[in-house]
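Run log, item B.
One chain of 502 residues. Sequence copied directly from the ordering sheet:
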Amino acid sequence: MIIRFIASRMAGSGSGKLSKPVVFIATAGVAIGVALMIVSVAIVTGFQREVREKVIGFGAHFQIVNTEQTYNRESSRLEIDQDFYPELSDMEGVRHIQIFATKPGIMETRDDLQGCIIKGIGEDFDWSFFEDKILEGEALNLHTEGASSDLMISQWTSKRMQIGIGDKVTLYFVLEEGDIRPRNFTVTTIYSTGLKEFDEQFVFIDIAHIQRINQWGIEAQLLVSDSCKSGTVGIEAFGFGGRGDLRYNWPGTDLKGKGPHQVSLKGDTTFTVIVHDRDRSLPDTAIVHFRYASPDSMPCSYRTESMTTGGSSRFYAGGFEVLIDRYEDLIPMSDELFYKVPYYLQVQNVADRNPEIFSWLEMLDLNVDLIIYMMILIAVVNMTSALLIIILERTNMIGMLKAFGMRDRDVVLVFVRHAARIIGLGMLIGNLTGFGLAFLQQQTGLVGLNPESYYVNKVPIEFNWLYIFQVELVTFVICTLFMLLPALYVAKIEPVKAIRFD
């Protein structure tokens, strides 16, 4: 109690002529240091979050892909029908799962060419990331019969290629064999994320185009000859896609191979062919119905009705993208997802797919740590100087306290407590200043940035409350403990000399 009382009286009575400016400087040093720490942590945390979320927006937290895949720009096929899709979205911590496919390509306009990464997305695509990134047009319309011809490009690409909403563009899909397949699209959406490395590469289309061009599945067709000879009709099967060496099955008949076959018609007749390959690609079916108006019209006056399932390519994708609720759960969720997927699939997290970007973001923590260490060092040096001067000014008081029987330990604690009050005042002012500036920037975006250099158009702010509290607590404890060193000088002061000290 007596220690607290004396320290309070010292604070209430003010400082001497010599120590007053020094205490002011020390308090200001602590305040500035704390304010800088708060602003630095808020800016770096906000910047890391903004860049991280943009990278995640282009490829999700996780991608589940075929173990054969070694090149990120070219998807290897895998079946969409998996035990974890879409049930994985019900897993705790998982926000969404969606299909995707990527393919290298070339964009051509009337006057220019540009290489790009073509990303195919489906109806299950989560548009939440792009909601505030779309500058012109609307999200791709993927709820159409057949493949949509909509195309989403970035603002950078729009300016570079001098194209806008409604313009026609040709995309050339580069196949593994070196062949190139053109498809025509219409620009319906222009977006901008500010992440130039991705904006200048990615264009978005309906995944159906990649499924068909890659011929991931098989497409079956039946061709009926126009001639009818001796009561027979020619019928031939065709198959496209798959992994080659196509096989043709004719259920309910003795027909073998693709044909052409001469078949007899005895009234209404149906022929079905199932095409598959040796690599166990999902098969496709084609059907032809021969219809007669009356028995007298047989065998040559028939009407045909052909049917196909549209090919099995639509049952394949390049992989699955998984979005989770919290980036902080990336590592533990990696382990959980590993046991959820079959052995022939691999789970890649966003940090492993983009090691350069995420290593750079982690290095920013070093800058914050350096600022924190420097601010603590400056605060300790300022407070040590201030406390030594206060001790010198209070030498007479120290002598009186010792003469009245106060132990050296208690006298030391009096000055440490007084120093802690000064540190606390500086931290209070620093908190008000630091949080005030950070809140102002967060609400107004007063300080802008060049997105081409910094990936964001304004200084981002995010408060990591727990981390800031821990930093301030450690700062206060370290500074206070270091005050024991100058305060120990009190133990060397002799009461008789101190009382006579002037």
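Observations after the first pass:
- The chain has three domains: 2-54+357-500, 68-215+315-343, 218-311.
- The first helix runs from residue 2 to 13.
Flagged for discussion on Thursday.
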